[in-house]
Design brief:
The chain contains 13 helices and ten strands. The protein has 414 residues and is of the alpha/beta class. It has an eight-stranded parallel barrel with strand order 1-2-3-6-7-8-9-10, surrounded by four helices. Helix 7 (177-195) packs parallel to helix 9 (235-247) and helix 12 runs parallel beside helix 13 (402-408). It starts with a helix and ends in a 6-residue tail after the last helix. The relative contact order is 0.11.
Amino acid sequence: MKKLSIFALIACVALMSACGPKDPGLKDAYKKYFKIGVAVTERNVADPLQAELILKEFNSVTAENCMKPGEIHPQAGVWNFEKADAIANFCREHGIKMRGHNLVWHSQFATWMFTKHDENGNAVVERDEKGDTVWVERPAFGRFPGFGGPRPDGAARPNGAPAFQMTKVPKYVAASKEEFYDSLRVHINTVVNRYKDVIYCWDVVNEAMSDADNPDAPYEDMFRKSQAFQLCGDEFIKNAFIWAHEADPNAGLFYNDYSAWTPSKRTYIYKMVKKLQEEGAPITGIGMQGHYNIFDNPTLEDFETAINMYLELVDDIQITEFDIRINEEAGGGLQFSRGEGQVYTEEIQKQQEKKYADLFEIMRKYKKNISCVTFWNLSDRDSWLGANNYPLLFDSEYQRKPVYYTVRDFKKNK
């Protein structure tokens, strides 16, 4: 009788195991749909409790900042691999694949690439007819923490923050297009090869399209007038994809942008990707960043329309930087108040839950083509939007919010 009880207990435990975990993580709930990812810092993976949360809930990881060009390659010949390696090694140790973010971006870029360098890697200073250094006055800008990369002279790079003083800096000789391409190709090859064992896809080019609200804009006017575009036109985008593919032929290669659901930007992205694909750019996926709000950004109709437009060009779409803030701002700008969010009332909570539910319902509908949805940061405490905008599924204490269960516990038969 005692033996029978033991056998019955074993059978019961086996049955419970077969039925799955009582408390599944997000990745378990969505295992038949798409990967659930998260953007992290090296601090997240170093903290045991946060690391445990990552491992339970997510099966794709993105380095939030430390793989961006200006962070990992701030000067010619200078590489900062420590933080990126910490995240990559965490993923290697635990068998999690990564999204690479990113190889080319106008912000947090390795802006030294636009300056001519000598054979020793030193920036070449412009000199007058006497051979003296030419000096110019530039504003000294403040910095939003984590954003912006150093100029060749080491000063803070402009990022839209107001100037507080003028400063004199040497005038540097501009790099030619060929010199810029030489630097960019080395950068892409070095970074992609270092992490190709753990990174399954890359945001190759990030946010190259204009924010102008004109779907009928001429092709040249669709682009952000970045230094790269001014020097190279759209060719830098095509070349970046070609070089990324050369470095890792097996990686998914994404163009990534915010507000990718709007009529204007989805038109810009569509036309650019179609043209460059026809010219040989191996663009295999489109990343829709997210950064939405609980109101009409995005509208559900426009969100689904954008997905269908992109599926005419690629088979793989990812929602790459997902969060839903409770104020009326949205997109990739930084013109928000991180310290003065709205009060998280019961009504606002319900609005947020509905927006999350509606967007995830659409994404589940396209599970054959949406391969990953990545939350941009682990918790409200970590969010680039600030904790008082309440954008994520985990609160500032890394506890599940009610909206977490809205996302996880959907009806599987829908």
